[in-house]
Specification:
Elements: E1 4-9, H1 13-24, E2 29-34, H2 37-46, E3 51-55, H3 63-73, E4 79-84, H4 88-96, E5 101-105, H5 109-129, H6 135-164, H7 169-184, E6 186-195, E7 198-205, E8 211-213, H8 218-225, E9 229-231, E10 248-255, E11 258-268, H9 276-320, H10 327-341, H11 346-358, H12 368-371, H13 379-385, H14 388-396, H15 403-411, H16 432-446, H17 458-467, H18 475-483
Parallel strand pairs: 1-2, 1-3, 3-4, 4-5
Antiparallel strand pairs: 6-7, 6-11, 7-8, 9-10, 10-11
Helix pairs in contact: 2-3, 5-6, 6-7, 6-9, 7-9, 10-11, 10-16, 10-18, 11-15, 14-15, 16-17
This protein binds fe (ii) ion.
Fe (ii) ion binds at residues 359-360, 388, 412-413.
């Protein structure tokens, strides 16, 4: 029994034969041929075809005229235009005139068959929704279905983009649950991480369990098979331990062939079962989220390695110069205290945390004879020391994700009045985090012993900071420093001590 008939219209007998051979290879379809446009129109009038493939350039009646006339006779008839590369503009015009698709010469077999199969598939889908004789209504239902699909794709796309912007895994777990609930319209969602025989729920809506023993639950099957499962009535909800009253959808998150977490979805808001489309949507979403988590983990490992390497570098510099031991650590701690008083953002504090530690990293490029010199520095030696912010900046520059840390390294010897180095920036043009670091750095330098002088007292250092407020230092930052525990002299036992 034939499923239907495809008409091929072309004035070239070879093309007719080849297309006929290719298309009749599609199971159940018969092919018919017409030798030109006029012959084609006659055949469309007298037969009920399922698809028409037509050439554009033909004697007597062109493919474009055939298209218009055939559309008038049978508006629902899918027509595919066959065109050479040079007439692609015509193909576009044909699409505007209602052609369903176009294929280019020379033919690619898979393009011909996939076009035919897609049209047949659409026709079948249409048939599924068809109410006999009510073509308009069928199209309406088909469009509604397509619209729903488009909405789902748009939602999936926007959630993917959103996930790409989250670098913190805790936040990702929360967003996964929130998005999955929205995407599948379910009331109960949970995401948990597998930990030796149990699952620790990281985020959930509509369900509260924190640690679930896995033994004997349906999650065990999901983990061993590394495949999603939809459990229904008769099985037990692994989160609550009570029998299910609605389908329970579990999706394993697999990284390096290991299930590390499970997303579970249940209690659909319309009470129905999960459709094929919804399953596909959820699995696509889960794949995307898994990738994001994996990337974050890789990033974290890389970031931590990098930080440890840079810290080791700073430690090696400080080991050369016994006077500066733990200088970077103290400066960072003082700067963070000032940042607290000044209510800086977490992001700024993170930059200070790391950049403060690295601010003198450029000293690795300064010779020992200069760095550790006990006597007065010559002009040349002074110039060499003054290079360390630029050397440090050159070390960090290739690592693109530390722009604020770079500022701390490059500008930590700038002065508020513009007389510092290397850029001679003044006032607000020096970033606030840098102005903070400068105060912390100078306080620690004054209160530490140097090869060429003994440590100054706390009281002396404070007086010096006050005296240089609004010249060397931002006065507001100095005032904030005076409110910190170190600025108040608490490290010395009492505020008045020096
Ligand atoms: Fe420095």
């Amino acid at each position: 029994m034939t499923e239907g008939t495809i008409l091929i219209v072309d004035d070239d007998p070879v093309v007719r034969d080849v297309l006929s051979d290719i298309l009749s290879g599609i199971t159940g379809y018969r092919t018919d041929v017409a030798i030109d446009g006029l012959d084609g129109i006659e055949k469309v009038k007298n037969n009920d075809y399922d698809i028409v493939f037509t050439d554009l350039t033909m004697p007597r009646l062109t493919g474009m005229d055939l298209l218009k006339e055939a559309k008038r006779i049978n508006p629902g008839l899918p027509i595919v235009i066959i065109t050479g590369f040079t007439t692609i503009d015509n193909a576009i015009t044909a699409m505007k005139e209602g052609a369903r698709d176009f294929i280019t010469k020379p033919f690619k077999v898979d393009k011909v068959t996939s076009t035919a199969q897609r049209i047949i598939g659409e026709k079948k889908l249409l048939g599924k929704f068809a109410i006999k004789g009510n073509y308009e209504a069928s199209i309406g239902r088909l469009n509604a279905e397509l619209f729903k699909k488009l909405q789902e794709i748009a939602l999936l796309q926007s959630t993917s983009t959103e996930l790409d912007e989250i670098y913190d895994n805790r936040e990702i777990y929360e967003r996964i649950v929130e998005m999955a609930s929205k995407l599948l319209m379910v009331h109960e969602v949970s995401f948990g991480i597998i930990e030796s025989g149990s699952m620790r729920i990281k985020s959930a809506v509509g369900t509260t369990s924190e640690v679930i023993p896995l033994g004997g639950t349906l999650f065990e099957k999901v983990i061993s098979q590394k495949k999603y499962s939809i459990a229904s009535f008769g099985e037990v909800n692994p989160l609550s331990g009570i029998p299910l009253t609605s389908p329970f959808f579990s999706i394993p998150f697999v990284i390096h062939d290991e299930v590390f977490g499970i997303l579970s979805l249940s209690n659909k808001s319309d009470g129905t079962a999960f459709t094929e489309d919804e399953i596909y949507l959820a699995l696509t979403f889960a794949k995307k989220a898994t990738l994001r988590i994996e990337n974050n983990a890789l990033y974290e490992v890389f970031y931590n390695n990098l930080i440890n390497t840079l810290k080791a570098l700073v430690t090696s510099i400080e080991a050369r110069d016994s006077y500066t031991k733990q200088h970077s650590e103290r400066v960072t701690s003082y700067a963070l205290q000032i940042a607290d008083v000044m209510n800086l953002s977490e992001e700024d504090k993170n930059s200070i945390q790391f950049g403060g530690y690295l601010h003198d990293i450029g000293k690795i490029g300064v010779r020992d004879t200069v760095l550790l010199k006990a006597g007065r520095l010559t002009k040349e030696e002074m110039a060499e020391i003054r290079l360390h912010p630029v050397i440090g900046d050159n070390i960090i520059k290739p690592i693109r994700f530390f722009p604020k840390e770079r500022e701390l390294i490059l500008y930590h010897h700038e002065r508020f009045d513009g007389t510092g180095y290397p850029a001679g920036l003044a006032g607000d043009r020096i970033p606030l985090c840098v102005r903070i670091l400068t105060v912390a750095d100078t306080y620690d330098a004054m209160t530490s012993s140097r090869p060429y002088r003994a440590a100054k007292t706390h009281a002396f250092a404070i007086e010096e900071l006050k005296r240089c407020s609004n010249s060397q230092f931002d006065g507001e930052v100095v005032r904030a420093f005076l409110q910190t525990s170190v600025g108040r002299g608490e490290a010395y036992g009492n505020a008045a001590a020096g």
